[in-house]
Model the fold of this input.
Amino acid sequence: GENVEQHPSTLSVQEGDSAVIKCTYSDSASNYFPWYKQELGKRPQLIIDIRSNVGEKKDQRIAVTLNKTAKHFSLHITETQPEDSAVYFCAAPRSGGGADGLTFGKGTHLIIQP
Amino acid sequence: EAQVTQNPRYLITVTGKKLTVTCSQNMNHEYMSWYRQDPGLGLRQIYYSMNVEVTDKGDVPEGYKVSRKEKRNFPLILESPSPNQTSLYFCASSFVSSRPFFGPGTRLTVL
Done:
């Protein structure tokens, strides 16, 4: 099955700076990579995703990049704001075809310092 | 309003006392799943279901049972709970398995 490694486990940045969270995966057949944001006491919510046929996807201040050769993908948040403080999870299909759910990384606690 | 509901939201119980956590969705999703979230371990899939009467094990199925008799409901059953099942549980549903929409969570404590 898929193995997803996520780094760092905690990331503290100054408000207005950029934040980058990195994930690696093991199954070269994986073709879909979502990112979830979980605010304190809330459910995880999908914020952005990328499919293996593209290298980058942007949505306002967040972007995700994918390097299929190296089997890693990253979440980039620019101009960070206090509301970006949360735990972020990357994920990949449990099996390459993706019919049996997701394997999640262990999460990154992003702290935005005022 | 599209939603996934779970009940109860909080539960404290004792070892060995059977319990059921209900999950219901109103989005006509085929795919439903259960995850548990533990500090430092992220979200781990317990069971999933691709449609009515079709269920399969996830990564951490030991000690749990599920059933899918109706499309909208996917209860999680702990026949004999143990303290190592103390956790935060999320039900999720989606049209495809790769985009789960999570419920609000159930915090379970087993004493």
DSSP finds no helices and eleven strands in chain A. The first strand of chain A starts at residue 4 and ends at 7.
